[in-house]
Specification:
Number of helices: 18
Largest sheet: 7 strands, mixed
Radius of gyration: 30 Å
Number of strands: 34
CATH class of one domain: Mainly Beta
Structural class: alpha+beta
Distance between the termini: 67 Å
CATH architecture of one domain: Beta Barrel
Shape: globular
């Protein structure tokens, strides 16, 4: 009794609240009286009991508990228990994203129950204390998002374990010595979890399923990135064998049922190192100021039949993955680089959107037909750009080439290219006039040596040659989507996967407006969709070429929603298209193959396809697209750190590219590599994070670090394992 009295005296309200919370969470369906509560918590003193009564009443006021009678309570399950997705952060700031779309809720590490990013979980919301954020506790893991992980092997005398990449676990995965599959200490490996933590055992146990090789080797590190995201880094042998049996032979029947474009001038325009040519353009003049432009797309669905072994693998992958130094194709190499690829001087089967256009790029008529083509020339973007510039085109002005002289335009297929460029620029101008948002983002690229080591780092900007192709692909995608989605009043549109893009987040749009004011810019955040998009375009034009351009573009992009696939069409805000789909890249995107199949089905008089089935496929494709983008970003981060690894101690001019509560992100002006100056290195003051204005403010001296500010940095660390660059402020 003396012990109980002593404990009662020491008991604080916060401690008691935790004990009560735990008690009710352990008994979610029980009604507990005060008498039972006192007994369970061993509260024997009058002060402790009175404190318990007060705390229980507070918890009922917070809706954590429901009052059953004057002296009994139970856990308020309504609104307290929810299901959703778990998001793990390496810094411990985990969150729960409810299924109902409401705001994410913080989950402390101690309350995460070993849940990982993507896991479906059931949580209970915890009693909210004054001045504390809303918190949740994971009570059950309903479904694991993944069970294989990649990392570095540590092998001791009696045991071994995997140190996972990316900080996905609070603890390492224990590996029995007989489950290492020959893996040695320091090697990268893929591990499958065989036993998850439970009440009796807090350890994660697994076994090696694949040894990738020595850490630091380029192939090993790239495969590690793929494995980390659950992406395949090998092509199944049986799928490749099935692809090898496809001859690509064009039969007399194929010729008979297709429109023949073999004698029409046709070419492909792609990156210099591309091997999979999935689109080609043809052009011929039909009369004065009238041209026929064919957008010819590789007819993948002719060779990959629905439900086949190749189709199942493509469906699972959903997209090709583009890492810095390699492509992981959606289709086997034989198909994507040979049979389906629109290679020059080879007859190929295509699915084509053919447009009759006048000199103002207005479409007079169009048709969607299966065709056979023979490409005359394979162009790289750089070659086309040179031909355009040789004929008087000034890049990014939006102006076409001046009229040809007596000798005509100079260069291979120059007349055709100049004409297509002229039409593309008119299409582009009309698109922006209609409300399309102008984002010309630069892409980070690397030149690598034969071992994959980066020797140069630079930004690649989209030029007129890229925009030429882009406009005709957009045109084809738009008209194809309209052909199915746009129906007469009273009719029901048939099922089609659309590429949809919702309106910007109003809150983030307002934050953008507040942010750009300090640079002297304005933005309209209310009004019609067209008014807002035109205001965004004016902002992009006004800041073009200024120091703050990239920063404003980055903040503007954060306000935009992510595009995705769905059979439920809401239009595409960014393009200002009421109907839009993906039709033009079936070699590298599965939704395009889905669209091809449905279009053929409907052209042959088929009924509308099953909505639920295609929506599932759309969701999967959207998820895989996001995963592929994350893997691509990780490969860029790795190469960036690798590029800077031999430059430790070097000083560079940079600018602040990001502000967080834990440090300043800086981008080097010379090579665009980004690293972070940690908050603890800013030791001249205590800095507060002003999230709204993207800045840190010193409490004593009021010194500010703001997005876009020039800064001089020293390269301090290059951690390849964490794909992390650390900078320090250069001394004055």
């Amino acid at each position: 009794m003396a012990k109980e009295k002593k404990r009662g005296k020491r008991l604080t309200k916060n401690k008691l609240a935790e004990m009560l919370q735990d008690l009710f969470l352990r008994n979610p369906d029980k009604t507990l009286s005060f008498k039972q509560i006192f007994k369970e918590l061993r509260l024997a003193t009058h002060p402790a009991k009175m404190l318990a009564v007060e705390t229980v009443e507070d918890m009922a006021w917070d809706d954590f508990l429901s009052k059953v009678s004057d002296n009994s309570y139970k856990l308020n399950l309504k609104g307290q228990v929810q299901e959703g997705k778990f998001i793990r952060k390496p810094n411990g700031k985990n969150s729960f994203v409810p299924d109902d779309g409401s705001q994410p809720v913080f989950v402390a590490e101690r309350n995460s129950k070993s849940a990982l990013t993507g896991d479906r979980v059931r949580v209970t919301f915890m009693a909210r204390r004054k001045k504390h954020i809303k918190e949740a506790m994971v009570t059950e893991i309903l479904e694991r998002a993944r069970d294989t992980f990649v990392g570095r092997l540590k092998v001791e005398r009696d045991f071994a374990f995997l140190v996972p990449d990316g900080g996905v676990f609070a603890n390492n995965i224990i590996l029995p010595k007989n489950k290492l599959k020959g893996g040695k200490a320091g090697e990268k490996a893929v591990v499958k979890v065989t036993k998850w933590p439970d009440e009796d055992n807090k350890n994660i146990i697994g076994e090696v399923v694949d040894v990738l090789g020595e850490q630091g080797d380029n192939d090993v590190e790239m495969n590690s990135i793929l494995a980390q995201y659950g992406l395949p880094y090998k092509y199944p042998k049986r799928v490749e064998e099935a692809a090898d049996k496809i001859t690509g032979e064009i039969t007399a029947e194929d010729y008979a049922e297709r429109e023949d474009f073999r004698d029409v001038t046709t070419f492909t325009i792609d990156p210099r190192d591309a091997k999979d040519f999935d689109d080609a353009l043809s052009i011929r003049q039909l009369g004065k100021n009238l041209w026929e432009v064919g957008v010819h797309i590789a007819d993948v669905s002719h060779y990959v039949t629905e439900g086949s072994i190749i189709d199942k693998e493509a469906q699972k992958r959903a997209t090709s993955v583009y890492l810095v130094d390699r492509t992981i194709p959606m289709l086997p190499e034989r198909l994507c680089n040979f049979v389906c690829s629109l290679r020059p001087d080879e007859e190929k089967l295509t699915y084509s959107a053919v447009f009759d256009m006048d000199e103002n790029a207005e479409v007079k008529s169009w048709r969607l037909v299966h065709t056979v083509i023979k490409s005359n020339r394979r162009f790289a973007y750089e070659e086309v750009q040179q031909i355009l510039e040789d004929n008087g085109v000034v890049d990014s002005t939006g102006q076409p080439a001046p009229p040809a002289g007596p000798e005509g335009y100079k260069g291979e297929y120059a007349t055709e290219l100049v004409t297509l460029d002229m039409l593309a620029k008119k299409l582009r101008a009309a698109r922006f006039k209609h409300g399309s948002v102008k984002f010309d983002r630069e892409e980070m690229r690397f030149d690598v040596d034969e071992k994959g080591k980066p020797v140069r780092c630079y930004f690649k900007k989209s030029k007129d040659a890229n925009k030429l192709i882009e406009e005709f692909m957009l045109l084809a995608n738009k008209y194809v989507a309209e052909s199915i989605g746009k129906v007469k009043k009273g009719q029901k549109a048939k099922t089609l996967p659309y590429r949809i893009h919702d309106q910007p987040d109003p809150t983030k749009l307002e934050m953008l407006r507040s942010f750009i004011v300090k640079f002297g810019y304005k933005l309209k955040t209310a009004g019609t969709k067209g008014e807002i998009s035109r205001s965004l375009n004016k902002l992009m034009d006004d800041c073009n070429g200024k120091n703050e351009q990239k920063l404003i573009e980055s903040v503007a992009l954060r306000a935009m929603m992510k595009a995705k696939y769905s059979i439920h069409n809401i239009g595409h805000y960014g393009l200002a298209f009421e109907y839009y789909t993906h039709f033009t890249s079936p070699i590298r995107r599965y939704p395009d193959t889905m669209v091809h199949r449905l279009l053929t089905r409907y052209q042959n008089g088929g009924r509308s396809a099953n909505k639920e089935y295609y929506e599932e496929l759309c969701e999967h494709a959207s998820d895989m697209e996001q995963i592929a983008q994350n893997a691509e970003r990780d490969s860029i981060k790795y190469k960036m750190v690798e590029f800077m690894a031999d430059k430790i101690g070097n000083e560079y001019d940079a600018h602040i590219s990001g502000i967080t509560s834990y440090g300043i992100y800086c981008e080097i002006d010379e090579n665009h590599c980004e690293g972070m100056v940690p908050m603890h290195d800013l030791d001249d003051d205590y800095y507060d994070f002003d999230e709204r204005n993207y800045r840190l403010v010193g409490r004593r001296h009021h010194h500010k670090y703001q997005l876009g500010d020039p800064i001089r940095i020293v390269v301090a660390k290059a951690n390849l394992e964490k794909k992390q660059l650390d900078f320090a402020l250069a001394e004055d």
